[in-house]
Write a structure and sequence with these properties.
- The structure is a single chain.
- By secondary structure, the protein is of the alpha/beta class.
- The chain folds into two domains: 168 residues, Response regulator (Rossmann fold), CATH 3.40.50; 141 residues, Response regulator (Rossmann fold).
- Helix content is 44%, strand content 18%.
- The chain has 13 helices and twelve strands.
- It has a six-stranded parallel beta sheet with strand order 2-1-3-4-5-11, with helices on both faces. The chain has a six-stranded mixed beta sheet with strand order 7-6-8-9-10-12, sandwiched between helices.
- Strand 8, helix 9 and strand 9 form a beta-alpha-beta unit.
- Helix 3 runs parallel beside helix 11.
- The two termini are 36 Å apart.
């Protein structure tokens, strides 16, 4: 499997027409054709549409990227935002349920939701959908069928790419893809993480000389220096011959980075791969302290979530699933244009209008 970057354009031509119409309305050049184009199936203009974005937590650079993209889309298309909210942590399922209940009470035209759990949010998601609200799910799946569209990473593929990146790094350092590896999951029961882990386990099996000796759960601890650090440190202690480690999200990756630093792990012998990034991981890639990290496209999820919400509110049929792409950043490609756009999407990602 290659490092091909999979992309699906999330701003159909229809939205260009909608945006042009809303701009015409706001500028006072309200022609009859512009009025007709801007009207939704409810007989209102696009600027009368109301929406809210509810994500897993606000305490994460990842979700701040989603917010930034959603805000840009809302401003460019002229829809009314009722809020950009999230719980105190990705482990707080009840907090997100409450936030969605609150959003439903505001009677939005559409909601953009990133579920903290694959099943626990099904009742409240279904409640919104059955109330006539267009439900755009992003990032993580819900097992209910009561939603309008789902924009996400192919997380199983992401896990597989992580396994391949780890095996390549091990072979480059030791001469063979062989030895003991371990991996950490941030939180059991989260749909996206479960898919990543399944992809990792499936694809690491293709390297017959590699054995998975430990799988740890960080229990949803949002502090990289807490459980993510301790499980990585315990793994390094328990398996002194470890040649590779994978963290399936940003917190478990950063916990491992800190454990490697504190334990003075020799990076020429032990490989580290993760999922997602901050500026810290960019520096680690460039200094060869990190062998790879899997990049999603949260900017596309945020912008596209609003875009598809508008289209659905206009009465158009939207895709049931949109693959927003997944790729691998490594020390070898970290300075490339595409990788740079994914590493720093707020300033370098070219989505939307000027």
């Amino acid at each position: 499997m290659t490092r091909q970057l999979h992309r699906i354009l999330v701003v159909p031509v229809v939205l260009v027409t909608v945006l042009a119409s809303s701009v015409a309305l706001s500028s006072g050049t309200r022609s009859a054709s512009a009025q007709r184009t801007a009207l939704t199936h409810t007989g209102r203009t696009v600027r009368q549409l109301k929406m809210e974005v509810v994500v897993k937590t606000t305490n994460s650079p990842y979700w701040q990227i989603v917010f930034a993209a959603a805000k840009k889309a809302a401003a460019q298309f002229g829809v009314q935002s009722l809020g950009y909210v999230g719980g105190p942590s990705e482990a707080d399922i009840n907090a997100e349920i409450t936030l969605i209940e609150d959003a439903i009470a505001k009677h939005p035209d559409f909601l953009v939701i990133a579920p903290t759990s694959a099943s626990a949010l099904n009742p409240v998601i279904s409640k919104a959908y059955k109330a006539g609200i267009k439900v755009i799910i992003i990032d993580s799946a819900a097992t209910t069928q009561n939603y309008t569209s789902f924009l996400a990473t192919d997380n199983r593929l992401g896990g597989c790419l992580a396994a391949q990146a780890l095996a390549r790094a091990i072979k480059r350092k030791t001469g063979a893809a062989r030895g003991q590896v371990a991996y950490a999951t941030f939180q059991s029961g989260a749909g996206s993480l479960g898919a990543r882990d399944a992809g990792f386990v499936q694809c690491i099996r293709a390297f017959h000389g590699i054995s998975v000796v430990a799988h740890k759960d960080a229990g949803g601890d949002p502090n990289p220096g807490g459980k993510p650090l301790s499980i990585a440190a315990d793994t390094l202690t328990a398996f002194p011959k470890l040649v590779g480690y994978w963290g399936d999200n940003l917190q478990t990756l950063q916990g491992a980075e800190k454990a490697f630093q504190e334990r003075h792990v020799n990076h020429s012998k032990v490989s580290l791969v993760g999922f997602d990034n901050t500026a810290q991981e960019v520096t680690a890639l460039k200094s060869h302290q990190l062998d790879g990290t899997i990049l999603q496209d949260p900017y596309q999820m945020g912008y596209g979530g609003v875009g598809y919400g508008i289209l659905a509110s206009a009465g158009l049929t939207v895709p049931r699933f949109v693959n927003t792409g997944v790729t691998v950043a490594t020390p070898a490609n970290v300075n490339g244009r595409v990788i740079q756009g994914l590493l720093d999407p707020v300033s370098k990602r070219q989505i939307g209008f000027k």
